Amino acid sequence: MKPATVQARAHSANFPTYRWLPKHAPEDRAIARALIEPEPWPFDGGARRANVIDPNEQPPRVVRRVGWSRCLCCGRPHFSPDVVGVRLCSACGGLGGVPRGRLDDEDA
Question: Between β-strands 61-70 and 49-54, what pairing exists: parallel, antiparallel or unpaired?
Answer without folding.
Answer: antiparallel
